[in-house]
Give the backbone structure.
Amino acid sequence: MKLFKRLSLLLAAALLLGVLAPGAAAEEGAPVIALLGPDPFCWPCGVPFEEPGFQVWDEAGIRKDAELRVVGDITVWRAGDYTLRYELTDGEAVIASAERTVRIVPQSLPEIVQPPKGTICLSFDDGPCEDTAEVLDILAKYDVKACFFIVGNQTKYLDILPRIAAEGHTIGIHCYDHRSYGMLYRDAEHYFSDLMHAQEIVREYTGQSAHVVRFPGGSLTAGFLAGTLPGGYEELYAMLADLGMREYDWNVQPESGEKTVEGTIIAFTHPRAPYEYAVVLQHDVRRFSVKALERMIQWALEEGYTFAALDESFPEIHLLE
Ligand SMILES: [Zn+2]
C-alpha cells in the first residue's frame, strides 16, 4: 500500500509537470492509465496511424499484461482533431480510462514552379501492365523521364514499381480499383479510402509516398465526388493538399483520335500551337499508344522540346478551368 501511495504521488507529480498525458484516473487503489506521447498527439495526414503507447499502473507497479480497449476512430485522410478513449475493464465494468487528442496535421507542399516554355510531361494511366517495361525501355533509350499514374490492384505487375522509381520517373496515383466510377466517387469515404489503399501499395513497393494524383476519368468525372462535399471542388483539392498531393488532368490527348499508332503520332506531332507546358495523357495498357511512343519522342526532341517528369511542384491542370 505504501509503495502504491508513493507511485500515485509520483504519477500525480508527473501529470502536474505534463510528463504524462492527463486523463488518468487517480482513485485510491484503482489502476491508472498514463498515455505516452505529447497531448495533442500530432500525426501527418495520410500516414497510417501508429499508437504512441500507454502504461497501466496499479499497486504492484506497471502492469505489463494490461490490455486496453481503444474507443474512437481516426480518419487519417482528413485533417482535424480526434479523440481516442482508452478503457481498462475488469471483464465487465470500466475500472480506469483516459482520453487523448490526436491531431491529424496537413502535410506541406512545395511552391509551384512554372516550367520553361516547351516542357512536355508524358504521363501513363491505368498501369502497370504487361507493356510498362517496354515503355520504360523506350524512355531510357532517349533519357526521357515521365509520370505513371498507377492502379494499385494490378497485382500481377506491381513488381515493376521499384524500377519505375529507380529510373527517375514519378509514380502518381490513379486509384486502387478502377472498375466503377460510381463506387469510387460515391463519397469522400469511398474515394479517400481507395486513394489511401493505393498509397500503401506505392509505399510498400518503393518506400516513397506518391504526391501527384490523377482522377480516373479526370476532374470532370470526379465532379460526382465534388458534389458530395459542401465546398465542392475547392474542398476536394484542399483535402488532397492536406495529404501532400496535387491533382493533374492533361492538356494533350493524342489517343483521342483514331486509336491507331499513326493516329496517335499525327495527333501529337500536329499541335494547334507549339506546346508551352504540355501534360500528355497516354495509357501503357493501350498497345497502339505504346507503339507510337518512340516516334513521338523523336519528333519532340527534334523540335527542341524538353521532357520532364511531372511532380507536385508543377502547376496543376484541371480540365474544368
Ligand atoms: Zn484510367
Observations:
- The chain is about 30% helix and 20% strand.
